[in-house]
Amino acid sequence: MDSQVLNQLFRQLFRHPACQSLRPQSSSALRRSDCVRLACRDHRQCRTFLTRRGQTKRRGTDDSMMWHKRDDYPKDITEELKTYPLVTAKDLRHQRERPRQVKMLTREFIDDSLYNPNYGYFSKHATIFTPGEPFEFNKMEDGREFNQLLGDRYTEFEDRLDEIKPDIARQLWHTPTELFRPYYGEAIARYLISNYKLTLYPYHDLIIYEMGAGNGTMMLNVLDFIRDTDHEVYQRTKFKIIEISPSLADLQMKNLRDSVNAAGHMGHVEIINRSIFDWDTYVHSPCFFLALEVFDNFAHDAIRYDTKTEAPQQGGVLIDADGEFREWYSTQLDPVASRFLRVRQAAARRPFPTPLGSKMLRGLRNSLPFQNGYTLPEYIPTRLMQFFDILHAYFPAHRLITSDFSTLPDAVPGLNAPVVQTRYKRRTVPVSTPFVHQGYFDIFFPTDFNVIEDVYRAITGKLTRVLSHEEFMERWAYIEDTETRSGENPLLTWYKNASVLTTV
Ligand SMILES: C[S@@+](CC[C@H](N)C(=O)[O-])C[C@H]1O[C@@H](n2cnc3c(N)ncnc32)[C@H](O)[C@@H]1O
To answer: How far is the centre of ligand 1, averaged over its atoms, from the C-alpha of 244 (Å)?
Structure first.
Protein backbone atom coordinates (compact mmCIF):
# COMPACT_ATOMS: atom_id res chain seq x y z
CA MET A 1 0.00 0.00 0.00
CA ASP A 2 1.25 3.50 -0.72
CA SER A 3 2.24 4.54 2.78
CA GLN A 4 2.81 8.20 1.86
CA VAL A 5 -0.78 8.61 0.70
CA LEU A 6 -1.94 6.72 3.75
CA ASN A 7 0.04 8.75 6.22
CA GLN A 8 -1.41 11.88 4.68
CA LEU A 9 -4.91 10.43 4.80
CA PHE A 10 -4.59 9.47 8.44
CA ARG A 11 -2.87 12.65 9.51
CA GLN A 12 -5.98 14.38 8.18
CA LEU A 13 -8.24 11.92 9.94
CA PHE A 14 -6.67 12.37 13.35
CA ARG A 15 -6.17 16.13 13.04
CA HIS A 16 -9.92 16.59 12.82
CA PRO A 17 -10.84 17.15 16.50
CA ALA A 18 -14.39 15.83 16.23
CA CYS A 19 -13.01 12.62 14.80
CA GLN A 20 -11.22 11.44 17.87
CA SER A 21 -13.19 9.34 20.23
CA LEU A 22 -11.24 6.60 21.83
CA ARG A 23 -13.53 3.91 23.08
CA PRO A 24 -12.79 2.63 26.56
CA GLN A 25 -11.01 -0.68 26.47
CA SER A 26 -13.10 -3.46 27.82
CA SER A 27 -12.71 -7.18 28.05
CA SER A 28 -15.23 -7.50 25.24
CA ALA A 29 -13.45 -5.05 22.95
CA LEU A 30 -11.68 -7.84 21.14
CA ARG A 31 -14.47 -10.36 21.29
CA ARG A 32 -17.09 -8.19 19.67
CA SER A 33 -19.40 -11.09 19.07
CA ASP A 34 -21.80 -8.58 17.54
CA CYS A 35 -19.38 -7.80 14.75
CA VAL A 36 -16.52 -10.15 14.73
CA ARG A 37 -14.82 -8.87 11.63
CA LEU A 38 -13.52 -6.06 13.76
CA ALA A 39 -10.68 -7.28 15.85
CA CYS A 40 -8.48 -4.80 17.60
CA ARG A 41 -7.50 -3.99 21.11
CA ASP A 42 -7.75 -0.25 20.55
CA HIS A 43 -10.82 0.65 18.65
CA ARG A 44 -10.57 4.25 17.52
CA GLN A 45 -13.72 5.63 16.09
CA CYS A 46 -13.90 8.50 13.71
CA ARG A 47 -16.99 10.30 12.51
CA THR A 48 -17.81 13.06 10.06
CA PHE A 49 -14.46 13.00 8.34
CA LEU A 50 -15.20 13.34 4.68
CA THR A 51 -18.88 14.03 4.30
CA ARG A 52 -21.19 15.80 6.62
CA ARG A 53 -24.82 15.13 6.04
CA GLY A 54 -26.13 18.64 6.48
CA GLN A 55 -28.70 20.78 4.78
CA THR A 56 -29.67 19.65 1.34
CA LYS A 57 -30.34 22.11 -1.37
CA ARG A 58 -32.00 21.71 -4.67
CA ARG A 59 -30.16 23.13 -7.64
CA GLY A 60 -31.36 23.17 -11.13
CA THR A 61 -29.36 21.18 -13.59
CA ASP A 62 -32.48 19.57 -14.75
CA ASP A 63 -35.43 18.57 -12.66
CA SER A 64 -34.01 15.21 -11.72
CA MET A 65 -30.54 15.99 -10.32
CA MET A 66 -29.83 17.37 -6.87
CA TRP A 67 -26.67 17.70 -4.90
CA HIS A 68 -25.71 18.23 -1.30
CA LYS A 69 -24.48 21.65 -0.38
CA ARG A 70 -21.86 21.07 2.31
CA ASP A 71 -21.37 23.82 4.84
CA ASP A 72 -17.63 23.19 4.99
CA TYR A 73 -17.13 23.20 1.22
CA PRO A 74 -19.96 25.01 -0.47
CA LYS A 75 -18.88 24.44 -4.03
CA ASP A 76 -21.56 24.59 -6.68
CA ILE A 77 -21.38 21.45 -8.81
CA THR A 78 -24.30 22.20 -11.11
CA GLU A 79 -22.08 22.52 -14.14
CA GLU A 80 -20.07 19.39 -13.35
CA LEU A 81 -23.22 17.33 -12.88
CA LYS A 82 -24.32 18.38 -16.34
CA THR A 83 -21.04 17.72 -18.11
CA TYR A 84 -19.24 14.86 -16.34
CA PRO A 85 -19.90 11.40 -17.82
CA LEU A 86 -21.75 8.77 -15.76
CA VAL A 87 -19.30 5.82 -15.55
CA THR A 88 -19.57 2.30 -14.16
CA ALA A 89 -17.08 0.09 -12.32
CA LYS A 90 -16.77 -1.95 -15.51
CA ASP A 91 -15.77 1.16 -17.49
CA LEU A 92 -12.95 1.74 -14.98
CA ARG A 93 -11.72 -1.86 -14.86
CA HIS A 94 -8.59 -1.20 -16.90
CA GLN A 95 -7.89 2.20 -15.43
CA ARG A 96 -4.75 2.38 -13.28
CA GLU A 97 -5.60 5.69 -11.59
CA ARG A 98 -8.66 6.52 -9.53
CA PRO A 99 -11.15 8.41 -11.70
CA ARG A 100 -11.68 12.18 -11.68
CA GLN A 101 -14.26 14.37 -13.35
CA VAL A 102 -16.87 11.63 -13.48
CA LYS A 103 -20.11 10.77 -11.73
CA MET A 104 -21.10 7.32 -10.57
CA LEU A 105 -24.09 5.59 -9.01
CA THR A 106 -23.43 4.53 -5.42
CA ARG A 107 -23.28 0.80 -6.28
CA GLU A 108 -20.80 1.43 -9.11
CA PHE A 109 -18.57 3.52 -6.84
CA ILE A 110 -18.59 0.80 -4.16
CA ASP A 111 -17.84 -1.91 -6.73
CA ASP A 112 -14.93 0.08 -8.11
CA SER A 113 -13.64 0.88 -4.65
CA LEU A 114 -13.68 -2.76 -3.55
CA TYR A 115 -12.89 -4.66 -6.74
CA ASN A 116 -10.99 -2.50 -9.21
CA PRO A 117 -8.10 -4.79 -10.26
CA ASN A 118 -5.54 -1.98 -9.91
CA TYR A 119 -6.53 -0.08 -6.78
CA GLY A 120 -9.53 -1.95 -5.31
CA TYR A 121 -9.64 -3.10 -1.69
CA PHE A 122 -9.73 -6.80 -2.62
CA SER A 123 -7.05 -6.58 -5.31
CA LYS A 124 -4.08 -6.42 -2.95
CA HIS A 125 -4.76 -5.63 0.65
CA ALA A 126 -7.14 -8.30 1.86
CA THR A 127 -5.59 -10.66 4.39
CA ILE A 128 -7.76 -13.15 6.23
CA PHE A 129 -6.43 -14.22 9.61
CA THR A 130 -5.85 -17.92 10.09
CA PRO A 131 -4.97 -19.38 13.47
CA GLY A 132 -2.71 -22.03 11.88
CA GLU A 133 -3.26 -24.85 14.37
CA PRO A 134 -6.95 -25.22 15.32
CA PHE A 135 -7.91 -23.76 18.70
CA GLU A 136 -8.27 -26.39 21.41
CA PHE A 137 -11.54 -25.22 22.95
CA ASN A 138 -11.86 -28.17 25.32
CA LYS A 139 -8.63 -27.10 27.05
CA MET A 140 -9.76 -23.49 27.56
CA GLU A 141 -11.45 -22.32 30.74
CA ASP A 142 -14.09 -20.12 29.09
CA GLY A 143 -14.90 -17.61 26.37
CA ARG A 144 -12.61 -15.03 27.97
CA GLU A 145 -9.63 -17.29 27.56
CA PHE A 146 -10.56 -17.86 23.91
CA ASN A 147 -10.70 -14.10 23.49
CA GLN A 148 -7.28 -13.74 25.03
CA LEU A 149 -5.73 -16.53 22.97
CA LEU A 150 -7.26 -15.16 19.78
CA GLY A 151 -5.76 -11.74 20.53
CA ASP A 152 -2.32 -13.31 21.05
CA ARG A 153 -2.52 -15.37 17.87
CA TYR A 154 -3.68 -12.33 15.95
CA THR A 155 -0.64 -10.38 17.11
CA GLU A 156 1.75 -13.28 16.35
CA PHE A 157 0.19 -13.71 12.91
CA GLU A 158 0.67 -10.06 12.08
CA ASP A 159 4.18 -9.93 13.57
CA ARG A 160 5.15 -12.77 11.24
CA LEU A 161 3.71 -10.96 8.23
CA ASP A 162 5.51 -7.75 9.23
CA GLU A 163 8.83 -9.61 9.40
CA ILE A 164 8.45 -10.50 5.73
CA LYS A 165 6.85 -7.23 4.61
CA PRO A 166 5.92 -4.44 7.05
CA ASP A 167 2.57 -2.82 6.28
CA ILE A 168 1.03 -0.13 8.51
CA ALA A 169 -2.24 -0.43 6.64
CA ARG A 170 -2.67 -4.18 6.44
CA GLN A 171 -6.37 -5.01 6.19
CA LEU A 172 -6.84 -8.06 8.35
CA TRP A 173 -10.06 -9.72 9.43
CA HIS A 174 -11.30 -13.09 10.55
CA THR A 175 -14.26 -15.27 9.66
CA PRO A 176 -15.98 -18.21 11.43
CA THR A 177 -14.49 -20.57 8.86
CA GLU A 178 -11.03 -19.65 10.16
CA LEU A 179 -11.74 -19.21 13.89
CA PHE A 180 -13.54 -22.51 14.18
CA ARG A 181 -11.56 -24.52 11.67
CA PRO A 182 -12.11 -27.38 11.03
CA TYR A 183 -15.37 -27.64 13.02
CA TYR A 184 -17.30 -24.96 11.12
CA GLY A 185 -16.34 -26.57 7.79
CA GLU A 186 -17.27 -29.99 9.14
CA ALA A 187 -20.76 -28.73 10.09
CA ILE A 188 -21.22 -27.50 6.51
CA ALA A 189 -19.87 -30.83 5.19
CA ARG A 190 -22.38 -32.77 7.33
CA TYR A 191 -25.18 -30.64 5.89
CA LEU A 192 -23.90 -31.27 2.34
CA ILE A 193 -23.49 -35.04 2.72
CA SER A 194 -26.91 -35.50 4.37
CA ASN A 195 -28.75 -33.50 1.75
CA TYR A 196 -26.80 -35.06 -1.09
CA LYS A 197 -27.55 -38.58 0.15
CA LEU A 198 -31.21 -37.81 0.74
CA THR A 199 -31.97 -36.41 -2.68
CA LEU A 200 -29.22 -36.88 -5.28
CA TYR A 201 -27.23 -39.99 -4.47
CA PRO A 202 -26.54 -42.27 -6.40
CA TYR A 203 -27.81 -40.63 -9.57
CA HIS A 204 -25.63 -37.54 -9.41
CA ASP A 205 -22.14 -36.57 -8.26
CA LEU A 206 -21.69 -34.25 -5.29
CA ILE A 207 -20.82 -30.94 -6.93
CA ILE A 208 -20.04 -28.03 -4.65
CA TYR A 209 -19.42 -24.46 -5.81
CA GLU A 210 -17.98 -21.99 -3.35
CA MET A 211 -18.13 -18.33 -4.29
CA GLY A 212 -15.52 -16.19 -2.50
CA ALA A 213 -13.39 -18.77 -0.73
CA GLY A 214 -10.93 -16.54 1.16
CA ASN A 215 -7.94 -18.67 2.18
CA GLY A 216 -9.58 -21.84 0.81
CA THR A 217 -10.02 -23.27 4.31
CA MET A 218 -13.67 -24.29 3.85
CA MET A 219 -12.71 -26.31 0.75
CA LEU A 220 -9.95 -28.17 2.65
CA ASN A 221 -12.10 -28.82 5.74
CA VAL A 222 -15.06 -30.05 3.67
CA LEU A 223 -12.93 -32.35 1.50
CA ASP A 224 -10.99 -33.74 4.49
CA PHE A 225 -14.25 -34.49 6.28
CA ILE A 226 -15.93 -36.17 3.30
CA ARG A 227 -12.86 -38.29 2.60
CA ASP A 228 -12.61 -39.37 6.24
CA THR A 229 -16.29 -40.17 6.77
CA ASP A 230 -17.62 -41.38 3.42
CA HIS A 231 -15.07 -42.51 0.90
CA GLU A 232 -17.68 -43.46 -1.68
CA VAL A 233 -19.13 -39.96 -1.67
CA TYR A 234 -15.61 -38.50 -1.70
CA GLN A 235 -14.87 -40.33 -4.97
CA ARG A 236 -17.78 -38.49 -6.51
CA THR A 237 -17.11 -35.06 -5.02
CA LYS A 238 -16.05 -32.01 -7.04
CA PHE A 239 -15.29 -28.73 -5.27
CA LYS A 240 -15.19 -25.64 -7.51
CA ILE A 241 -14.20 -22.23 -6.24
CA ILE A 242 -15.29 -19.03 -7.98
CA GLU A 243 -12.99 -16.30 -6.68
CA ILE A 244 -12.75 -12.69 -7.84
CA SER A 245 -9.38 -11.88 -6.26
CA PRO A 246 -6.29 -13.12 -8.17
CA SER A 247 -4.16 -13.06 -5.02
CA LEU A 248 -6.72 -15.03 -2.98
CA ALA A 249 -7.16 -17.52 -5.85
CA ASP A 250 -3.35 -18.05 -5.82
CA LEU A 251 -3.39 -18.43 -2.04
CA GLN A 252 -6.20 -21.00 -2.24
CA MET A 253 -4.12 -23.06 -4.68
CA LYS A 254 -1.00 -22.68 -2.50
CA ASN A 255 -2.88 -23.76 0.63
CA LEU A 256 -4.28 -26.74 -1.26
CA ARG A 257 -0.78 -27.75 -2.43
CA ASP A 258 0.69 -27.25 1.04
CA SER A 259 -2.01 -29.25 2.81
CA VAL A 260 -1.10 -32.73 3.99
CA ASN A 261 -3.86 -34.17 1.85
CA ALA A 262 -2.93 -32.22 -1.28
CA ALA A 263 -2.20 -35.26 -3.40
CA GLY A 264 -5.63 -36.74 -2.80
CA HIS A 265 -7.69 -33.56 -3.09
CA MET A 266 -6.03 -32.10 -6.16
CA GLY A 267 -8.16 -34.07 -8.62
CA HIS A 268 -11.35 -32.95 -6.87
CA VAL A 269 -10.72 -29.20 -6.99
CA GLU A 270 -11.04 -26.46 -9.59
CA ILE A 271 -10.25 -22.82 -8.77
CA ILE A 272 -11.81 -20.37 -11.18
CA ASN A 273 -10.45 -16.84 -10.84
CA ARG A 274 -13.47 -14.85 -11.95
CA SER A 275 -16.16 -12.64 -10.52
CA ILE A 276 -19.50 -14.37 -10.23
CA PHE A 277 -20.89 -11.39 -12.14
CA ASP A 278 -18.86 -12.43 -15.19
CA TRP A 279 -20.13 -16.01 -15.08
CA ASP A 280 -21.39 -17.33 -18.43
CA THR A 281 -21.35 -21.14 -18.21
CA TYR A 282 -24.60 -23.07 -17.95
CA VAL A 283 -24.40 -25.70 -15.18
CA HIS A 284 -27.23 -28.12 -15.67
CA SER A 285 -26.15 -30.60 -12.95
CA PRO A 286 -27.60 -30.36 -9.47
CA CYS A 287 -25.09 -28.60 -7.24
CA PHE A 288 -24.67 -26.97 -3.85
CA PHE A 289 -23.64 -23.33 -3.93
CA LEU A 290 -21.80 -21.93 -0.90
CA ALA A 291 -21.49 -18.21 -0.20
CA LEU A 292 -20.07 -17.45 3.24
CA GLU A 293 -19.53 -13.82 4.14
CA VAL A 294 -19.60 -12.75 0.51
CA PHE A 295 -22.97 -10.99 0.27
CA ASP A 296 -21.81 -8.32 2.72
CA ASN A 297 -19.38 -6.87 0.19
CA PHE A 298 -21.87 -6.85 -2.68
CA ALA A 299 -22.49 -3.26 -3.71
CA HIS A 300 -25.77 -1.55 -2.84
CA ASP A 301 -27.63 1.44 -4.24
CA ALA A 302 -28.59 4.39 -2.04
CA ILE A 303 -32.24 5.46 -2.19
CA ARG A 304 -33.75 8.34 -0.27
CA TYR A 305 -37.37 9.43 -0.25
CA ASP A 306 -39.11 12.77 -0.52
CA THR A 307 -40.96 12.93 2.79
CA LYS A 308 -43.92 14.76 1.24
CA THR A 309 -44.47 12.78 -1.96
CA GLU A 310 -42.67 9.61 -0.80
CA ALA A 311 -41.08 9.41 -4.26
CA PRO A 312 -37.70 7.63 -4.31
CA GLN A 313 -34.46 9.22 -5.50
CA GLN A 314 -31.29 7.34 -6.38
CA GLY A 315 -27.95 8.45 -4.97
CA GLY A 316 -24.54 8.75 -6.50
CA VAL A 317 -21.24 10.53 -6.18
CA LEU A 318 -19.48 13.08 -8.32
CA ILE A 319 -15.69 13.09 -8.26
CA ASP A 320 -14.37 16.50 -9.19
CA ALA A 321 -11.10 17.58 -10.78
CA ASP A 322 -9.39 17.60 -7.36
CA GLY A 323 -10.62 14.12 -6.46
CA GLU A 324 -13.19 15.51 -3.98
CA PHE A 325 -16.42 13.55 -3.53
CA ARG A 326 -19.89 15.16 -3.73
CA GLU A 327 -23.11 13.24 -3.18
CA TRP A 328 -26.01 13.76 -5.55
CA TYR A 329 -29.49 12.33 -5.95
CA SER A 330 -31.65 11.85 -9.01
CA THR A 331 -35.40 11.42 -9.25
CA GLN A 332 -34.79 9.12 -12.22
CA LEU A 333 -34.02 5.63 -10.97
CA ASP A 334 -31.85 3.43 -13.16
CA PRO A 335 -33.41 0.13 -14.34
CA VAL A 336 -31.52 -2.00 -11.78
CA ALA A 337 -32.62 0.00 -8.74
CA SER A 338 -36.19 0.38 -9.93
CA ARG A 339 -36.39 -3.36 -10.65
CA PHE A 340 -35.23 -4.13 -7.12
CA LEU A 341 -37.94 -1.91 -5.64
CA ARG A 342 -40.57 -3.57 -7.86
CA VAL A 343 -39.43 -7.13 -7.11
CA ARG A 344 -39.27 -6.42 -3.36
CA GLN A 345 -42.75 -4.91 -3.39
CA ALA A 346 -44.19 -7.86 -5.30
CA ALA A 347 -42.31 -10.57 -3.39
CA ALA A 348 -42.55 -9.35 0.21
CA ARG A 349 -44.55 -11.71 2.40
CA ARG A 350 -44.34 -9.31 5.33
CA PRO A 351 -43.86 -5.56 5.78
CA PHE A 352 -40.29 -4.45 5.22
CA PRO A 353 -38.60 -1.48 6.91
CA THR A 354 -38.46 1.83 5.07
CA PRO A 355 -36.77 5.08 6.04
CA LEU A 356 -40.16 6.78 5.66
CA GLY A 357 -41.18 5.06 8.89
CA SER A 358 -44.58 3.67 9.87
CA LYS A 359 -47.88 4.97 8.46
CA MET A 360 -48.54 6.73 11.77
CA LEU A 361 -45.16 8.46 11.75
CA ARG A 362 -45.70 9.60 8.17
CA GLY A 363 -49.10 11.09 9.05
CA LEU A 364 -47.61 12.85 12.04
CA ARG A 365 -44.69 14.17 10.03
CA ASN A 366 -46.92 15.53 7.29
CA SER A 367 -48.93 17.49 9.84
CA LEU A 368 -45.81 19.33 11.07
CA PRO A 369 -44.98 22.73 9.55
CA PHE A 370 -41.20 22.23 9.36
CA GLN A 371 -39.65 19.03 8.26
CA ASN A 372 -36.65 17.65 6.51
CA GLY A 373 -37.27 17.32 2.79
CA TYR A 374 -35.75 13.87 2.45
CA THR A 375 -35.23 10.74 4.49
CA LEU A 376 -31.86 9.27 5.27
CA PRO A 377 -30.82 6.86 2.52
CA GLU A 378 -31.71 3.21 2.55
CA TYR A 379 -29.16 0.92 0.95
CA ILE A 380 -30.78 -1.65 -1.33
CA PRO A 381 -28.96 -4.87 -2.32
CA THR A 382 -29.03 -4.46 -6.08
CA ARG A 383 -25.92 -6.59 -6.76
CA LEU A 384 -27.34 -9.36 -4.61
CA MET A 385 -30.48 -9.33 -6.76
CA GLN A 386 -28.23 -9.63 -9.84
CA PHE A 387 -26.44 -12.56 -8.19
CA PHE A 388 -29.81 -14.31 -7.79
CA ASP A 389 -30.40 -13.67 -11.51
CA ILE A 390 -27.11 -15.46 -12.24
CA LEU A 391 -28.01 -18.40 -10.01
CA HIS A 392 -31.35 -18.68 -11.76
CA ALA A 393 -29.94 -18.36 -15.28
CA TYR A 394 -26.77 -20.46 -15.00
CA PHE A 395 -27.27 -22.76 -12.00
CA PRO A 396 -30.95 -23.76 -12.31
CA ALA A 397 -30.49 -26.89 -10.18
CA HIS A 398 -28.46 -25.25 -7.41
CA ARG A 399 -29.10 -25.29 -3.69
CA LEU A 400 -27.79 -22.23 -1.92
CA ILE A 401 -26.11 -22.27 1.50
CA THR A 402 -25.23 -18.78 2.57
CA SER A 403 -24.27 -17.17 5.83
CA ASP A 404 -23.83 -13.48 6.59
CA PHE A 405 -24.35 -10.66 9.09
CA SER A 406 -27.96 -9.74 9.71
CA THR A 407 -27.07 -6.58 11.63
CA LEU A 408 -23.89 -4.55 12.02
CA PRO A 409 -22.93 -2.00 14.66
CA ASP A 410 -21.08 1.25 13.82
CA ALA A 411 -22.66 1.59 10.38
CA VAL A 412 -22.83 4.88 8.49
CA PRO A 413 -26.18 6.76 8.78
CA GLY A 414 -29.13 5.22 6.96
CA LEU A 415 -31.22 2.08 6.76
CA ASN A 416 -29.42 -1.17 5.97
CA ALA A 417 -26.32 1.02 5.89
CA PRO A 418 -22.77 -0.30 5.56
CA VAL A 419 -19.85 -0.24 7.92
CA VAL A 420 -17.02 1.64 6.24
CA GLN A 421 -13.67 1.14 7.90
CA THR A 422 -9.99 0.72 7.39
CA ARG A 423 -7.11 -0.52 9.49
CA TYR A 424 -4.13 1.66 10.23
CA LYS A 425 -1.28 0.66 12.53
CA ARG A 426 -3.37 -2.29 13.68
CA ARG A 427 -6.29 -0.11 14.67
CA THR A 428 -9.72 -0.19 13.10
CA VAL A 429 -10.89 3.22 11.90
CA PRO A 430 -14.55 3.50 10.94
CA VAL A 431 -15.72 6.51 8.91
CA SER A 432 -19.17 7.93 8.26
CA THR A 433 -19.58 7.65 4.49
CA PRO A 434 -18.84 5.14 1.71
CA PHE A 435 -17.44 7.95 -0.45
CA VAL A 436 -13.83 7.70 0.66
CA HIS A 437 -10.50 7.14 -1.07
CA GLN A 438 -11.11 4.09 -3.24
CA GLY A 439 -9.36 0.86 -2.22
CA TYR A 440 -8.39 1.85 1.31
CA PHE A 441 -11.67 1.04 3.03
CA ASP A 442 -13.69 -2.10 3.52
CA ILE A 443 -17.37 -1.39 2.81
CA PHE A 444 -19.67 -4.12 4.08
CA PHE A 445 -23.40 -4.33 4.55
CA PRO A 446 -25.81 -6.18 6.79
CA THR A 447 -28.22 -8.55 5.04
CA ASP A 448 -31.94 -8.24 5.73
CA PHE A 449 -32.70 -11.96 5.54
CA ASN A 450 -36.48 -11.41 5.56
CA VAL A 451 -36.26 -9.27 2.45
CA ILE A 452 -33.64 -11.22 0.55
CA GLU A 453 -35.32 -14.54 1.25
CA ASP A 454 -38.44 -13.24 -0.50
CA VAL A 455 -36.45 -11.74 -3.38
CA TYR A 456 -34.49 -15.00 -3.83
CA ARG A 457 -37.72 -17.04 -3.84
CA ALA A 458 -39.32 -14.71 -6.37
CA ILE A 459 -36.35 -14.81 -8.76
CA THR A 460 -35.40 -18.49 -8.52
CA GLY A 461 -38.79 -20.02 -7.73
CA LYS A 462 -37.15 -22.06 -4.96
CA LEU A 463 -38.12 -22.52 -1.32
CA THR A 464 -35.84 -21.58 1.54
CA ARG A 465 -35.19 -21.71 5.26
CA VAL A 466 -33.46 -19.08 7.39
CA LEU A 467 -31.84 -20.07 10.68
CA SER A 468 -29.69 -18.11 13.05
CA HIS A 469 -26.00 -19.05 12.99
CA GLU A 470 -26.52 -20.63 16.40
CA GLU A 471 -29.52 -22.72 15.31
CA PHE A 472 -27.69 -23.96 12.21
CA MET A 473 -24.64 -24.93 14.26
CA GLU A 474 -26.76 -26.68 16.88
CA ARG A 475 -28.21 -28.83 14.11
CA TRP A 476 -25.09 -29.62 12.13
CA ALA A 477 -21.96 -29.16 14.28
CA TYR A 478 -20.58 -31.47 16.94
CA ILE A 479 -20.81 -28.74 19.50
CA GLU A 480 -18.72 -30.67 22.03
CA ASP A 481 -15.69 -29.87 19.83
CA THR A 482 -15.96 -26.15 20.57
CA GLU A 483 -17.09 -26.27 24.18
CA THR A 484 -14.84 -24.72 26.86
CA ARG A 485 -14.47 -26.23 30.34
CA SER A 486 -17.03 -23.80 31.82
CA GLY A 487 -19.60 -24.99 29.28
CA GLU A 488 -19.44 -21.76 27.29
CA ASN A 489 -19.37 -22.49 23.57
CA PRO A 490 -17.93 -19.76 21.32
CA LEU A 491 -19.20 -21.47 18.15
CA LEU A 492 -22.73 -20.80 19.45
CA THR A 493 -22.26 -17.52 21.30
CA TRP A 494 -20.16 -15.68 18.75
CA TYR A 495 -21.76 -14.52 15.51
CA LYS A 496 -25.08 -13.77 17.23
CA ASN A 497 -25.62 -11.27 14.43
CA ALA A 498 -25.28 -13.83 11.62
CA SER A 499 -27.91 -15.97 9.87
CA VAL A 500 -27.84 -18.89 7.45
CA LEU A 501 -30.15 -19.17 4.45
CA THR A 502 -30.51 -22.51 2.67
CA THR A 503 -32.53 -23.69 -0.30
CA VAL A 504 -34.81 -26.53 0.77
C1 LIG B 1 -15.07 -11.80 3.55
S2 LIG B 1 -14.28 -12.90 2.46
C3 LIG B 1 -14.95 -14.45 2.99
C4 LIG B 1 -14.03 -15.60 2.69
C5 LIG B 1 -14.51 -16.98 3.08
N6 LIG B 1 -15.79 -17.29 2.47
C7 LIG B 1 -14.58 -17.15 4.58
O8 LIG B 1 -15.70 -17.15 5.11
O9 LIG B 1 -13.52 -17.26 5.20
C10 LIG B 1 -15.12 -12.58 0.92
C11 LIG B 1 -14.61 -13.40 -0.23
O12 LIG B 1 -15.47 -13.22 -1.36
C13 LIG B 1 -14.69 -12.93 -2.52
N14 LIG B 1 -15.58 -12.22 -3.46
C15 LIG B 1 -16.15 -11.01 -3.27
N16 LIG B 1 -16.91 -10.66 -4.34
C17 LIG B 1 -16.84 -11.69 -5.21
C18 LIG B 1 -17.40 -11.92 -6.51
N19 LIG B 1 -18.17 -11.01 -7.12
N20 LIG B 1 -17.13 -13.10 -7.14
C21 LIG B 1 -16.34 -14.03 -6.54
N22 LIG B 1 -15.75 -13.84 -5.33
C23 LIG B 1 -16.01 -12.70 -4.66
C24 LIG B 1 -13.51 -12.17 -1.92
O25 LIG B 1 -12.40 -12.08 -2.77
C26 LIG B 1 -13.23 -13.06 -0.69
O27 LIG B 1 -12.56 -14.25 -1.04
So the answer is: 7
